[in-house]
Amino acid sequence: MADRPTTLAEPEFLFGPFRLLPAQQILLEGGAPVRIGSRALEILTALVEHAGQLVSRGDLIARAWPNTFVEEANLNVHIGALRRALGGGHPGNRYVATIPGRGYRFVAPVNLTESRVQPVLRADAAMRAHNLPAASTRLIGRDDAVDALLRQLPKHRFVTVVGPGGIGKTTVALAAAEALLGAYKHGVWFINLAPLRDPHFLPGALASALELTIHSGDPMPALVAHLRDKQMLILLDSCEHLVEAAAAFVEQIIGGASGLQVLVTSREPLRVTGEHVHRLSPLEGPPSSSRMTVAEALAFPAVQLFVERAAASLEGFELTNADVPIVANICRKLEGIPLAIELAATRVDAFGIRKLSDLLNDRFQLLKQGRRSALPRHRTMAAALDWSYELLREDERVILRRLSVFAGAFTLESACAVAASGAIADPKVIEGVANLVAKSLVLADVSGAVVQYRLLDTTRTYAVQKLAESGELEALLRLHAEHHRDLFKQAEAEWEARPTAEWQADYGHKIDEVRSALNWTYSASGDASIGVALTVAAIPLWMHLSLMDECCACVERALASDSTERIRDDYDEMKLNAALGAALLYSRGPLPETDVAWTKALRIAEHLADSKYQLRVLWGLSIYRVYIGDYRAALWFAKRFQAVANENGDAADRLSCDRLMATALHYTGDQTGARRRLERMLSQYVSPAHRSHVARFQFDQPVAARSTLSHILWLQGFPDQAVRMAQSALEAARATDHALSLYNALGHAACPIALYVGDWVGARRLLAMLLDHLEKHGLTVWNALGLCLQGTLLVKQGDMNGLPLLRSALDDLREMRFGLRYSAYLGTLAQGLGAAGRMKEARAAIGEALDWSERSEERWYLAELLRINGELFRLEGSASAAQTAEDQYLQALEWARRQQALSWELRAATSLAQLWHQQGRTAGADELLSSVYGRFREGFETVDLKSARALIDDLRKTPA
Predict the structure, then answer these.
(1) What CATH class has 392-471?
(2) pLDDT tens, residue by residue, 465-483
(3) What secondary structure does DSSP assign to 265-278, as a single string?
């Protein structure tokens, strides 16, 4: 018989990255054989040969199972395997389409060639040097982990992949092993230890995989002798239930065979000399606050995995922009655990995306259906955790159950306090936590000064069920609530004394524990007295995190509880009402109930002679009056604050009073007096290392002072200094890591100043930063002010889409009785309406703004309102309207000069000069505008000064 030629002529189908060689019964991807069963390959060949055409189910069954009767379900299984082999579900990889009730169609472009090709090594031939199972799904998001193992194995003869159940240890280890198939002369061998219950059979399991027959009571010597001269990789999968036996086994075979390398998967390390541990992390998912497109979401492996598995489960499934937030939330709920994500994705066909997200609150019920081909312990999430739980000692099970009452991260001290009923450092709990960390059931974050522990939510949910079954749940919930009540009483006492970073490190992450404890205290089986005490103690935490809405809700609940009225003392009432006043103001606005809460708190503080709370509440009452536009009353409360501060306050209190008074003076138009106070405060103020003044007054005081001063500098004709001062406020606010202070710097300084100087690019950047910040913190008042700034930017750029935005935001502010800068935004609205030709609406808006300025005595913007009013009259074009416009410009000049507001004076002079120039009064226009322009010493690249300079040049070109 003649030898087979080295090259053959045969048909070759090309599609995507694949080559199909039907004669050799092989599918290649990028030159590498794709693992695929013979029947799935036969089905693929039939579809590719008839690309673009419908191939009936009957024809495919006849092709794959000739002369054999099989159920149609068999075809479904192989179609699924085919899609997985082709990367089905991955964006852009759609090859086989289902025609419901009829069959299938190959929908990708196919090129048919006939070329002479080298015979390709068949997949079954390639498998002779290994026994690795074919991957049933495509590996997603684990390239870095596989690459790490590929780097580690040449350096370390023994590597253990460690992680909790469902994290994907086996999948990653198999991928790494497959990538190394050509690196070992004697092959790569996989031994699944999960079914093995007797550790004595471990050597036999390896011998069986290597097809060795050993007739000996002790097979180890013969096995080691066989391995002694071998270059081989052995993959021992799922060693956690045989840890001690597996450790001894690995030590023996590595010690006796120098060319041997071992890769192990286990939920805990084997703790053997020479072991290198690789801990597998969850898949990365999108952050909670980001707005993403489909493409951006698919950059995260957790989303990729969900989408691919959902597409395999539901024909035609595609991720849409509308579904991105829901899928991202699903992946976050499942904490990036691949098994949980896969199991959830398989239920999309039954529930859809939105309902699936809702049902994940009962995740074990939902995640009980898995792949039939999966290992039994991986068919459901509960089964995966059952496997781990059953391997624990009883004392470890008790500790795991008790730790499940923690909603988030906890310290070792907290673990002892709850799991050991108040013990400070119980050695059994300490050892138990260490063991649970080693076994991947508790995660440890060692990056900070204090180690933080937590359970994955899936583990926690499972353990809570076990805790309920044990009958200890209610007792542990009480212990948890009492512990956090005591902990936050300590935190409250330290709030104004400790450095901010230290306090944040110790308490800032415990908000979930507070929420969980409060939920129990006000439940039917809870204890409301603990709830009230914890609410009072947690007020600094809500203020620190700027969680004003949450603070409102919790404080209102504590105050509204009739059952707790008898246990609330005066100090509780004072603290709760003071917190309610602050939280209401910064979340819902200066509503009447805000004033009521603060007034009640002040009355109690004065009765108790508590000067600290008197200062806190007087500050709030003054700011409240500023927000509603009652500046005279704001100054009155500021003077009361000053009296208490002079008698009982510290130096920072007395200097902060300058800031409080300067705010009211600025808005009433006394820019000189306001600036003097602010500069004195900033020159003498020394920020304390602790957060006392942020705690009392909600804003970082130097940040707030710089924000107001930036406005005054711009008004007085120092645009460049104003920009620098606003930038300084923003940098300082970022350093505080305080939400309200950052809003103050962005919304009251950086964004407005950018708009004043005409820096549209900078304004857009800063506004995007502000809106993103507001989205994270959900403060209603500030959201409306943010939209006012957004509308102002659009109107200033000539985009009339800003008008409905401004009107809507102003309606919100009016409903909340928020008057601060209300007239300024109304003026911008009137200006935009006039430019759009909507004069009646423009007149109504400017009339409302002028009326507000008169009633509230808010004079800082009056000159600009008069100028805008003049502009509206000028648009009418009549002689009488022109005269009225001139009167308005002259009044604007008078008010600007009275307040020493050079920037308003320049705008008014520019408008009046334009009018005079049109009337032929060019010389007077030049003299007026030049005299104002000549008083500036900076800011010549800002929009107002450039416009004025251009007009002056134009006036001087006009013949006399």
Answers:
(1) mainly alpha
(2) 899 999 999 999 999 999 9
(3) EESS----TTEEEE
